[in-house]
Structure formats: C-alpha cells, structure tokens
Specification:
2 domains; two-stranded antiparallel ribbon; Rossmann fold; 7-stranded mixed beta sheet; 31% helix; alpha/beta; Helicase, Ruva Protein, domain 3; single chain
C-alpha cells in the first residue's frame, strides 16, 4: 500500500483491490472515445491499468500528496495531471474532442460530478464510476419508486444508464461506512432535443421538490389554464412520470 494517507475532508477512500480496478477499467467502451479523464486517481489503482490501455489520458487530482505519488511512484507524466477541483474546472478546455470520464469518485461530491457532466453533455460521451450505492441506485432508478427523482430523470434524459456491480467497504482504505456500486453512463446521441431544456430542468426540479403533491399543485407557478389542468398527467405525482412523460409535459407547458 502507498504512503499517501487518505484525507477525510476530501472524501478519500482508496480502492485497494486490483481485480475490481481491472473490472472498472474494462467497463469503459474505448470505441466511444480514446480521450479519457480520470477524476480523483488518488494512489493510481485505476491509473496503472489505464496506462496500459494507451488512452489519451488526463488526471484531475485535488490532493498534492496524491499528485506527487502519481508522478514519483507511477511515473505518470506531470503534464497530463491537472491539480485542482474538478467541480471548479472548465473541462471543455481539457480536450478539443469528445471524451469519457472514469473514477472512484469522492462520495461527498459525486452528485455534483453528475450535474457537471450534464452541463458538459455535448462533450462527455461516457462515464464509468464508483458511487455510494444509494446515489448509484438513484441515478439508475426507473419511475414508480421513492428513489426515482431529479437525478434519475435528468441523467436518463441524456444517458443510457447501467448498474454494473456492487463493491463492499472492505476493499477500500479506509473502509467507507456505506456500500458502493459501479455504474456506467453512455450518452444517447439520437435523442430528440425538440424541447426547451431550461424549462424541462425547471419542471423536473419543481415537481420533485414537492413530490408528495400532484403536478396540478406543484406546477401552479406556470399558471396552467383550467382546461389543460384537467389533463390526466396533472393528476399524477412526479415519480409516476417517465423521462419521456416529462419531456411531453415540458412541450405542453411551453405551448401555453
């Protein structure tokens, strides 16, 4: 094991099982893009296998101790390491082409990572990552359950999601207090974009912020005419709507 000490404030839990690392690396579909960003490489358990795959690879690491380790022990080219906070970076400046993202993501920012991916969906073709199991389930959940929510709908509007496998706490140092899971997102390139995306986001967020209410009540802000409010969709709660239903609802409200 490395001499890098995991830092609690950075949410670091270093994976120490090579077999799982290989499984994660092999889950990336290289045919989608040869350009790859690894977020939070830490002690390089994924990086050392990615190097052998000949990717056009960039690492983003906020921890200077980990950066020193990656350069001195793994001999990774320092020119291809971006030291800093992924959430504050302009990732559209890293590659001038489409790219994939991989990582054992810090659990305290994993949801924010997904939202940043969505902001850059025109560039990010694929994500393979380790998440807290609960977050992974929320991303992949289908309509009709309590876990289905904002994260599910917004992610699945643009990406096909695949819940790959679960990972026990015992393979990390230090072991997290939660279960973990690896998921894969592949961008939907043929999806119809014939709707107002800003309005779509607003409707999804408003709906789930008051998820116990029917849409008739949670979307009052849009001053929906009485004749439209009688439409059956407004009598539903948000978890009863599929992604396509939310897109149709967006178009319905946009045409008021």
């Amino acid at each position: 094991m490395s001499f890098v000490k995991a830092k609690k404030h950075l949410g670091q839990h270093f994976l120490r099982d090579d077999n799982i690392a290989i499984k994660i690396v092999q889950s990336v579909d290289k045919s989608l893009s040869n350009s790859l960003i690894e977020i939070g490489p830490g002690t390089g358990v994924l990086t050392k296998f990615l190097i052998n795959e000949n990717y056009n690879l960039k690492l983003i690491e906020i921890d200077s101790e980990s950066v020193n380790y990656l350069v001195s022990i793994l001999k990774f080219d320092s020119d291809n390491i971006l030291e800093g906070d992924f959430l504050k970076m302009r990732i559209d400046n890293i590659f001038n082409n489409q790219f994939s993202i991989i990582g054992n993501f810090p659990y305290n920012i994993s949801t924010q990572i997904i939202f940043k991916v969505l902001e850059n969906k025109n560039l990010v073709v694929q994500v393979v990552g380790m998440f807290q199991k609960e977050v992974a389930e929320r991303i992949c959940e289908k309509k009709g359950t309590k876990k289905y929510g904002i994260l599910s709908v917004l992610t699945q509007a643009y990406y096909n999601v695949d819940y790959l496998f679960e990972v026990p706490p015992s393979v990390f140092n230090p072991p997290p207090k939660v279960q973990s899971a690896v998921i894969k997102l592949v961008r939907i390139d043929n999806i119809s974009k014939n709707y107002n995306e800003e309005l779509f986001y607003k409707i999804v967020k408003l709906s789930f912020q008051q998820r116990r209410k029917t849409l008739r009540n949670s979307l009052k802000i849009f001053n929906i005419p009485l004749n439209l409010r009688e439409d059956a969709i407004f009598g539903l709660r948000p978890e009863q709507l599929s992604v396509r239903d939310f897109i149709n609802l967006t178009n319905l409200i946009a045409n008021i």
